[in-house]
Specification:
Pfam families: MR_MLE_C, MR_MLE_N. The protein folds into 2 domains: about 120 residues, Enolase-like, domain 1 (2-Layer Sandwich), CATH 3.30.390; about 220 residues, Enolase-like C-terminal domain (TIM Barrel, Alpha-Beta Barrel). The protein is globular and about 60 Å long. It has 12 helices and 13 strands. The longest helix has 20 residues. Helix 5 runs parallel beside helix 6. Strands 5-6-7-8-9-10 form a 6-stranded parallel sheet. It has a 4-stranded mixed sheet with strand order 11-4-13-12. A 3-stranded antiparallel sheet has the order 1-2-3, sandwiched between helices. The model has no long low-confidence stretch (mean pLDDT about 95).
């Protein structure tokens, strides 16, 4: 499966109003389309809130794409390792986003060539995975809006929702109490501070919210502070989880072995694609740690269906207005798509309206 040609592109799409922390927040999607023997594979990564997608595209165009033209697309792991060798002196930054776009496209192409879904290509062990409602709980929402949107998830069959905290910790107990009162005791509530808190404020908030039976406390402090995560895990009753800003399996190792995280939440774009996500899943599985991948629902459904460590997949429908595919969700579980590849396709209208490069 010789790689014959690769197209790169950038889309800038609006953030969901229900999630945005500021006006004009948006996602930039950095895409790659790989052509081989009459087939195409599509991959994309994203930068959220601000611009930066054209910087990733420049790295693709100037370095990574020329380096893999003519290679065998049937071996994405080999190509991933070659890209890592080319870029490892850059550390972990935009190179991981660029690698992810290519790696996801190669896995899509490989699965299509074999007539498999992405999940089946990796090693599928289940036909559906649990999902929780997310992305409709921004800190700027009123309590009434927060309750209404959370209730909408429950009414549509979800048994778990995630609420953002940390923007104004003094207001968070009342906001969470209102959601718990509305949803009842049988719905799981996760909270996510997006790294906004100090250790002491996270400890205080966690203790205040414990009475509401919080299922997990996500990103309470900055992601590099392993010690604070470990101490919070010791002193709070709810599991401490995180990892969406970790960029490799190596960065997860100490957090897993030292139980700083009860569940890992890697982002497939941040870690460099499917190849590295599989390594992280194996790490979690080997150490009895849960797997609950961040964002990227349409891709993560496939990955989560290949490991026994899956606890939940985040259902964050930020791409639904721009793609042709829709997930089938029943009673809080998403059916793993069976079409060849990952099944994600952006509409022509999306390219016409939102393409910037």
């Amino acid at each position: 499966m010789k790689i014959e040609n690769i197209d790169t592109w950038v889309l800038r799409v609006p953030f969901l109003r229900e999630t945005a922390d500021f006006d004009d927040a948006h996602h930039e999607l950095i895409g790659v389309t790989v052509h081989s023997e009459g087939l195409t594979g599509m991959g994309y990564s994203f930068i959220t809130d601000h611009a930066g997608g054209t910087s990733v595209k420049a790295l693709l165009d100037d370095l990574l794409v020329p380096s893999i033209l003519g290679r065998d697309a049937a071996h994405p792991e080999r190509i991933w390792n070659a890209m890592e060798e080319l870029t490892h002196r850059m550390g972990t930054g935009i190179n991981r986003f660029a690698m992810a776009s290519i790696d996801i496209a190669l896995w899509d192409l490989k699965a299509k060539s074999n007539g498999h879904s992405l999940a089946a290509e990796i090693g599928q062990i289940t036909d559906d995975v649990p999902v929780y409602g997310s992305g409709k709980a921004g800190g700027r929402l009123s309590v009434d809006e927060l309750v209404r949107l959370s209730q909408e998830y429950v009414d549509s069959g979800f048994d778990a929702v995630k609420i953002r905290v940390g923007r104004d910790p003094g207001e968070d107990p009342a906001r969470i109490a209102a959601v718990r009162s509305a949803l009842g005791e049988h719905v799981k509530i996760m909270i996510d501070a997006n790294e906004r808190l100090s250790y002491s404020s996270a400890l205080s908030l966690g203790r205040q919210l414990a009475e509401h039976d919080i299922f997990w406390f996500e990103e309470p402090v900055v992601y590099t502070d392993r010690r604070s995560h470990m101490e919070l895990a010791r002193h709070l009753p709810m599991p401490i989880v995180g990892g969406e800003h970790h960029c490799s399996s190596a960065e997860f190792l100490d957090y897993v072995t030292e139980r700083a995280f009860a569940m890992v939440q890697p982002n497939v774009c941040m870690v460099g694609g499917v190849t590295e996500m599989v390594r992280i899943m194996h790490l979690a599985d080997a150490h009895g740690v849960g797997f609950a991948p961040h964002l990227m629902t349409d891709l993560n459904i496939h990955l989560a269906a290949t490991t026994n460590s899956t606890v939940y997949v985040e259902y964050f429908p930020f791409l639904e207005p721009y793609t042709t595919n829709r997930l089938e969700i029943t009673h809080g579980r998403a059916t793993v798509p069976t079409a060849a590849g990952h099944g994600i396709e952006f509409t022509d209208e999306t390219f016409a309206k939102y393409r910037i490069a």
